[in-house]
Structure formats: C-alpha cells, structure tokens
Amino acid sequence: MHEPSLPDRSIAAYDRVTPTGRLERLHSLADALEDVRILHVNSTAAGGGVAELLRSIVPLSTDLGIDTDWLVMDADDDFFEVTKAIHNGLQGSGQPLTEAMKTTYRAVTDENGAEIDGEYDLVVIHDPQPLGMLDRLDERLPDAPVVWRCHIDLTEPEPASLEFVTGYTRRVDHGIVSRSAFEDRIDVPSTSVVYPSIDPLTEKNRSLAPETIAAERDRLDPLSFDAPVLTQISRFDPWKDQFGTLEAYRHAKEERPDLQLALVGGMAGDDPEGLEVYERVAREAMDDPNVHVLTDRSDTAVNVLQRESDVVMQKSLREGFGLVVSEALWKRTPVVGSTVGGIPLQIDDGRTGYLVDPDDTDAAGDRVVALVADDERRAEFGENAREHVREQFLLPRQLEELLEIFTAVLDREP
Predict the structure, then answer these.
(1) Which of 42, 82, 139, 393 could form a disulfide with 326 if both were Cys (CB 3.0 to 4.6 A apart)?
(2) Which terms under GO biological process does the entry name (predicted)?
(3) Which pTM was predicted?
C-alpha cells in the first residue's frame, strides 16, 4: 500500500461556485467529525474518476479539520486482470472467475490489508478491488465501520460475479451507489445514493486565460478548430464504445463532410485492457485524417478540448456515472450521450444536450449534425448546461452528502 501525494485544497476557495449555506453545513459536519480518523482505500492513484475524486475529497476533508488518509493498493497485472473481470462481470459481461483467479484476488487483498497501519475510526473502500481486505480490517480495526463506495454500473450484473462480490458486500456496514436504480442490485446492509461530482477548481475544469487556450489549440494541430469538432474523452475501455462513436461520426459526416472527431483518453493503472483497446481504435481510425486518436494529454489540453469543441459525445454502453459529461457541460459545451448509468442524470434532454439509445449510432450522428448546424442552439444549451452542473454536480455538494453519511454511520450529531 502506498500514499499518493496530494495537492493543497481550501474549502474557502469554493465560495464562488457554491452557496454559503452549503459551506456552513460542511463546517458543521466537520465539527462533528473533528476527533475522527478516516481512511479511503482504492486501487489506483491516477487514470480514473475514483482517483480524481479522492485527489480533491481527501485534502478538502483535511482542510475542514477531519483527519483523512488515502492509501492505494500495490498489485501486479495478474491481480488487475482478475479485478477487470470482476468489473466487467458486474457491468454485464466478461470472462468467468476461475478458482485460480479468486485465489489471486484473495492473496493480493490479504497482503495489502496486512499493511494498513495506524488507528482509524472509519474505512471507506472504493469498488471491488479492496473488498478482500475485510478479514484484515476486522482484525486490525474491529470497531471501525466499513463503508463500500461502488462507482460501477450495476444495471445487469452477471450472477457469478455478483455472487462473488456479494460475499464481501454483505459484511460491510454501509454501501454508497451512484444511482437509486443500483441500490437493490447488490446485497449491502444499508445503502445511500450519492451522485459523483466534478471539482471546478482543478486544472481540468477551471477557467483558462485566452493565451493558454490559444497555446493548447496550437499543440493539438493538425486538429483544427476552424472546422466543426466532435470530441469524446474517456478511458480506452470497451464499455466507453469508441467504435460506436466512430460510427456516429461517420454517419454525421455524410451531412457535414468538414466534421472532425477527437477520441481522447488515458490508461488507468488498474485497467489492463486499455492499451489493447487504444491500439484497436487507432487502427480503425487510421484511414481518416479527420479522426484524431489522442492519449496521455495534460489536464489543460482536456480542458481546452472540452471547452473548444462544438459537441462532446459520451456513447457508453455501461457507465457508473461518467463525470466527463458534467466536465463538458460545465464548460458550456452540449453533450450527446447514451441512456445508460449516470449519463441521463447529467443531460437534460433537449436543454443541455441530447440522449440517445446506446446502440443507435445514426440517432447520435443526427443529433451531432443538428447541434453543429445551429450556433444559437449550442449557445443556449451551453448556458443551461453550466447552471445545471452548478446546481447538482459540483464537489461541495458531494462532500456534504458523504460527510452526512459518515456522521450517521458513526452516530455523530452535527
């Protein structure tokens, strides 16, 4: 286990984007937890939404006066092959878990759990990867409640994967999911629904100076913002369906031959499929000079792409939540997204973007054409989108709801 380096964060800096009453509530909740020590555990320090959330939540909790640590598992590719299979199974498909895979999972989680040192009053474990630590946590911290935060789309889990994970989840004290539709999919003693959020003050989401935008646009050459740009930003993962986005783009290109497509993503440290999917996508796109498959771009570059694109697409087949949708909406860029996971919670269909069936690439392409052709509609959607995210999907709201759960689990009164 290792502790990632963290940026400094001040909750006072969010007074420009969140109501004063919410900041006051955060301080009240923090006062109730002032003598509590909390540990978050997950499987990667970079490359995914969970890591991004923890990179903001942990230092902000500390700034509020709550003693909060974050530990990341140490594991090899064999372990991550197993946990990717579990992840895929929970989302509806994937290779079955063999006894050898289960043995690998148990050995690695047990080894990592044995490395937890110090005293904690509450442990939050994120997704299935650290669940196997429960025996060690029971030994080391018998009085500390365990909260399981599930970030995965649980719409139609495979029974075998569900059974394996449920063997652990029924032993935690409380579960948190991203949609109410997921609450009854898995056996947990009690559950809460907390929508994930974006941090508006990070490099990926903050406002940028015109000269910064201009410099990043130049670095993205040969992608040109003088012609329409459609962008999808997501990990190279089969569930993100970059191939479906390519089909939607090709359909839209029949009406708009000048349309360009940017498929942008990175590789999460706990996702062994990433490189293979990236290479397949790059091969599929290589014959079209207007398709740009980009990886390992800075957060500033992603910010500019989301800000300067005409339309952003998120055509996932399964999606725990998909915060890249709110990232684009926050930057006043309309989004065409599929009706899966948390995407419909973020897109107000016909006001901030459009929702389409995940398998309907023609409909997705048609929506792109309609938006590209109508500057006034894009601007209107963009203003609606900014306010929609401000009201529902910014970090202080999520932190408030998490701290409310922690006080309830620990029987503290704010």
Answers:
(1) 393
(2) glucose metabolic process
(3) 0.91
